[in-house]
Design brief:
By secondary structure, the protein is an alpha/beta fold. The chain folds into two domains: 181 residues, Medium-chain alcohol dehydrogenases, catalytic domain (Quinone Oxidoreductase, Chain A, domain 1); 129 residues, Rossmann fold. The chain has ten helices and 15 strands. The strands form three sheets. Strands 3, 4, 5, 6, 7, 14 and 15 form a seven-stranded mixed sheet that branches. Strands 10-9-8-11-12-13 form a six-stranded parallel sheet. Helix 4 crosses helix 5. The protein starts with a strand and ends in a 5-residue tail after the last strand. Bound molecules: NADP nicotinamide-adenine-dinucleotide phosphate (NAP). NADP nicotinamide-adenine-dinucleotide phosphate binds next to helix 1, helix 4, helix 5 and strand 9. NADP nicotinamide-adenine-dinucleotide phosphate (NAP) binds next to helix 1, helix 4, helix 5 and strand 9.
Length: 323
């Protein structure tokens, strides 16, 4: 089967198309014929070997063997199942998250039956389903489970035009919040269409200086800090970053107080989150924003584009039709 691998950190040119043996599903594994995957900002950072401290996990001087095939999000068709699998059958159309197991940049990927895998929405293409995995479940995890957004609260989303951000705007509305989206000039109309009550163009205004107070500031792109956002939070408000090692001690420290706090975490087990997202999509209550789509052979171009930091929503990679 085809697989994209990299054995060194660097520019998108380190990505190589290779031929490898397809994986064989174990007793409780599901073998997925990958039809679509994506290029996320996180994967581009992993390809570059950034942040440097992350190399403790991904490999100090070059990617560890199991980190050489990127691809966190997938949608495809179940090709085979292990003897002990009861939840999936060959032919099921599924979407899922490989996490640090990575490996979706390939024609086939084995997923544990009880991992982050679910039947995909009935009303989407494989390309759309692949783009509805990490951004949507991450936004849901932080807003619903970590910040515990309640109806009537005021939520501000920084990076409202990104993958996590486009879903965050819609999910915060779904949870009953009043939503302010922060994005660049070319995406202000999109963010309003997604349901934001108010949109701030970051090239023209600084939300930390507008005198407004928010119950939740959700920075999906790491462009702000707790100290800068503190005055913009209500007395019991929370700052929710998706990235930044420096935020980890702040989560512990501020968690001890009853005042403004930093809320963090990582959504790793996504089974229930995927099912929730699927239901919203099937009810036409969650829109999937796809910026560009590339075939597997042009994955380096997709990485070059995501490296700019200016994608809108999601960038999808297609691998070819299901059987
Ligand atoms: N903790 C977790 O579980 C978890 C899970 C998933 C992702 N993440 C992390 O979350 C981060 C976001 O990922 P993503 O894929 O959603 O990002 P993304 O799609 O790459 O974000 C790009 C968007 O950010 C906008 N942007 C750039 N600078 C901005 C600013 N100063 N203010 C407002 N918007 C700005 C850009 O708009 P313009 O083009 O107009 O500049 C662009 O549309 C990544 O670092 C990823 O590693 C964490």
């Amino acid at each position: 089967m085809r697989a994209i691998e990299h054995t060194a950190y660097g520019s998108p040119d380190v990505l190589r198309l290779t031929e490898v043996d397809p994986p064989v599903p174990g007793h409780r594994d599901v073998l997925v014929k990958v039809v679509a995957t994506t290029v996320t900002s996180a994967e581009c950072a992993m390809r570059r070997g950034e942040p440097r401290w992350g190399r403790v996990v991904i490999g100090f001087t070059r990617p560890r063997r199991r980190m050489r095939r990127l691809g966190m999000e997938l949608a495809g068709e179940v090709a085979a199942v292990g003897a002990g699998v009861t939840r999936f059958r060959p032919g099921d159309r599924v979407f899922g998250f490989t996490g640090f197991g990575l490996g979706a940049y390939a024609d086939y990927k084995c997923m544990p039956e009880l991992g982050s895998l679910a039947v995909m929405p009935a009303n989407t293409t494989f390309e759309q389903a692949a783009a509805a995995v990490d951004g949507a479940t991450t936004a849901l995890f932080f807003l619903r489970d970590q910040a515990r957004v309640r109806p009537g609260q005021r939520v501000l989303v920084v990076g409202a035009s990104g993958s996590v951000g486009t879903y965050a705007v819609q999910l915060a509305k779904h949870l009953g919040a009043h939503v302010t989206g922060v994005c660049g000039t070319r995406n202000t109309a999109l963010v309003a269409e997604l349901g934001a009550d108010h949109v701030i163009d970051y090239t023209e205004a600084d939300f930390t200086a507008n005198g407004e107070r928010y119950d939740v500031v959700f920075d999906t792109v790491g462009r702000s800090s707790f100290s800068a956002c503190r005055p913009s939070l209500t007395p019991r408000g929370c700052y929710v970053p998706t990235t930044g090692l420096h935020n980890v001690p702040l989560v512990w420290l501020t968690g001890l107080s009853r005042g403004r706090r930093v809320v963090g975490g990582m959504s790793v087990h996504k089974g229930e989150l995927l099912a929730y997202v699927r239901d919203l999509i099937e009810q036409d209550r969650l829109r999937i924003v796809i910026d560009r789509t590339y075939p597997l052979e042009r994955i380096a171009d997709a990485h070059r584009y995501v490296d700019t930091g200016h994608k809108t929503g999601n960038v999808v990679i297609t691998l070819g039709g299901a059987s």
